[in-house]
Specification:
This protein has twelve helices and ten strands. By secondary structure, the chain is of the alpha/beta class. The chain has a domain of 218 residues: Aldolase class I (TIM Barrel), CATH 3.20.20.70. It has a five-stranded parallel β-sheet. The chain has a three-stranded parallel β-sheet with strand order 4-1-10. A hairpin with a 2-residue loop joins strand 2 and strand 3. Helix 1 crosses helix 2, helix 8 packs parallel to helix 9 and helix 9 runs antiparallel to helix 10.
Length: 328
C-alpha cells in the first residue's frame, strides 16, 4: 500500500457522500461536476461517490465506473476521492475496487455484503479478498439497517490485524458501545455514518464523518469536524445542534437519498429525479422539507433560490423515533 499510512491518517475530516444527479433518465454530468466544485469550495475534505446516497444500486456497472471516473477527473487532485466499490458479489466488489485504483481513487469504501447475510468467517474472507485484490486503502462500511448484517468487532479487528490496507470503518450502527469497544481493541480510523451522531462519535474517538447533509451544507459539516478535531467543544456543540436539527428534520420524510435530493432540488442544485424503486416524495413531505430549508435560511424567504449557508439555531429537536430510518 502506497497511498495512505497504515492507520489511515489521511482518512479524516468532513467527507460528503455525493448524490448522483439525473436528468431525463441519464446521469446529469454537468450537474455532477457543479456539485463537485461546490463541495471543494465548501471545504470538504473527501468526495465519496457511488455510495447509497449516490443511488449505486440503480447505476449500471458502466455508469458506476463512469460516475467514479468523472468525480476523480473533475476534482483533478483538488480533493481526494473515496470511491464506493461494495457489492454482495465478492468478485464484482473486487472488480470495482481494482478499477477504482486504476482510475486514480485515493481509497475505497466497501459496504458489508447485503442480502446474502454471510457468517463472520464469510465476512472476513469477503473483505480480505477485496483488500488483497487492490493496492488501495479500504474503508469498511457497517450499516446493518440496510444490509441485514453487522460487521462485528471481532471481524474488524481480525481484518485490521491481517490486511495492511484495511485502515478505517464507516460506522452507521448507532452504537456508541461498539465504537468504544473497537477503539479499545485496535488502531483503526472510525468515521461517523450518521450526521446527527457525528459530534458524539467524535467525542469517543471518531475522526470524521461521511455525510449526507454535507450535500447541502458542506461548510457547516467542515466546521463541525474541524472544531471537534481541534477540541473546541463549545463551537463543535453549536455546529452539532444545527447539523442534528437539519438531519433529523429532513431525514424523517423517507429513506436516503429521497429527502436530501428533494431538498437539493428545492434549492435548485439538481433535478428532482430518482430511479425506481425510489420515487419522488408526496407534495406534503416536499412542502414540509421546504419549510425546514427556509427555517435554516438555506433558501430565500420569498423564492427557491439557494442562499449562502447560514443555518438558524436549532429549535427543539425531533425524536429519532419519528423518522423512517437514519439518514446514512
Amino acid at each position: 500500500m502506497t497511498r495512505l499510512s497504515r492507520i489511515g491518517d489521511g482518512l479524516r475530516g468532513s467527507m460528503t457522500a455525493l448524490v448522483t444527479p439525473f436528468r431525463g433518465g441519464a446521469v446529469d454530468w454537468a450537474r455532477l461536476e457543479a456539485l463537485v466544485d461546490r463541495q471543494i469550495v465548501g471545504g470538504t475534505d473527501w468526495l465519496v461517490p457511488c455510495g447509497t446516497t449516490g443511488e449505486s444500486p440503480t447505476l449500471s456497472a458502466r455508469e458506476h465506473d463512469e460516475v467514479m471516473e468523472a468525480v476523480i477527473a473533475h476534482s483533478a487532485g483538488r480533493c481526494p476521492v473515496l470511491a464506493g466499490t461494495g457489492s454482495n458479489n465478492t468478485t464484482e466488489a473486487m472488480r470495482k475496487t481494482t478499477h477504482a485504483a486504476s482510475a486514480g481513487a485515493d481509497a475505497a469504501l466497501v459496504v458489508a455484503p447485503y442480502y446474502n447475510r454471510p457468517t463472520p468467517e464469510g465476512l472476513y474472507r469477503h473483505f480480505a479478498a477485496i483488500a488483497e485484490a487492490a493496492d488501495l486503502p479500504i474503508v469498511l462500511y457497517n450499516v446493518p439497517a440496510r444490509t441485514g448484517i453487522n460487521i462485528g468487532n471481532d471481524v474488524v479487528v481480525r481484518l485490521v490485524e491481517t490486511c495492511p490496507n484495511v485502515v478505517a470503518i464507516k460506522h452507521a450502527t448507532g452504537s456508541v458501545d461498539d465504537i468504544t469497544n473497537l477503539l479499545n481493541r485496535c488502531e483503526v480510523a472510525v468515521l461517523s455514518g450518521d450526521d446527527s451522531l457525528t459530534w458524539p462519535m467524535m467525542a469517543l474517538g471518531a475522526v470524521g464523518v461521511i455525510s449526507v447533509v454535507g450535500n447541502l451544507c458542506p461548510s457547516l459539516l467542515k466546521s463541525l469536524v474541524k472544531e471537534a478535531l481541534e477540541g473546541n467543544c463549545p463551537a463543535a456543540q453549536r455546529c452539532h445542534r444545527k447539523v442534528y436539527d437539519l438531519a433529523e428534520s429532513i431525514g424523517r420524510y423517507g429513506p436516503n437519498p429521497l429527502p436530501i435530493k428533494t431538498a437539493m432540488a428545492i434549492c435548485g442544485l439538481l433535478e428532482e429525479e430518482f430511479r425506481l424503486p425510489l420515487c419522488p416524495l408526496d407534495a406534503k413531505a416536499r412542502t414540509e422539507i421546504e419549510q425546514v430549508l427556509r427555517r435554516h435560511e438555506l433558501i430565500d424567504t420569498t423564492s427557491t433560490a439557494l442562499t449562502p449557508e447560514a443555518p438558524a439555531e436549532a429549535p427543539a429537536s425531533i425524536p429519532r423515533s419519528q423518522r423512517e430510518e437514519s439518514i446514512v
